[in-house]
Design brief:
Elements lengths: L11 E5 L4 H16 L4 H14 L3 E3 L2 E2 L2 E4 L6 E11 L9 E10 L3 H15 L2 H9 L3 H9 L1
Parallel strand pairs: 1-5, 3-6, 4-6
Antiparallel strand pairs: 2-3, 5-6
Length: 148
């Protein structure tokens, strides 16, 4: 699986104004609902919030991987956003987060979900990729960095 298989340019947003964990998850939900059309923004947000209740998806180094399963979703989709300034997200290193790579998977694809998370985590462990994501000035640059 390649990131471009699950992330489209219209699901990439640079320098979002985020004020809280919930607000960022609302933005992610709105982008996803616009992209999916037939899945409600509230359903996406509920899925993401339910996962966060199990423990923060903030993996450290200013990065979070919010994810959730959705009934009615046919294939995995991703949303990538950066926010300025960074926000508190209860990350494992207690640091603020400014890069959010969200993944939504069909309810019945748990195994694919884990492989997708592993692929993304590997990409985001590259310090140069992360530095370039933070330098991106627009949505197109952000998309190009993550799929390159």
């Amino acid at each position: 699986m390649e990131i471009k298989d699950i992330l489209s340019p219209d699901c990439t947003s640079c320098a979002v104004q985020g004020t809280s964990k919930k607000r960022i998850l609302e933005v992610i939900s709105q982008i996803a609902a616009e992209r999916l059309g037939d899945i409600d923004q509230t359903a996406v947000l509920t899925s993401l919030l339910n996962r966060e209740k199990l423990g923060s998806t903030g993996i450290g180094n200013g990065i979070a991987l919010p994810h959730g399963r959705l009934q009615g979703l046919e294939k995995v989709i991703a949303i990538l956003i950066t926010c300025k300034p960074s926000i508190e997200f209860d990350a494992i290193d207690n640091g603020p987060v400014d890069i959010f790579f969200a993944i939504l998977v069909p309810e019945d694809q748990a195994q694919g979900h884990l492989q997708t998370l592993a692929t993304i985590a590997t990409k985001l462990s590259d310090k140069e990729v992360v530095k370039s994501l933070r330098k991106a000035d627009n949505d197109e640059q952000l998309y190009k960095v993550i799929v390159s």
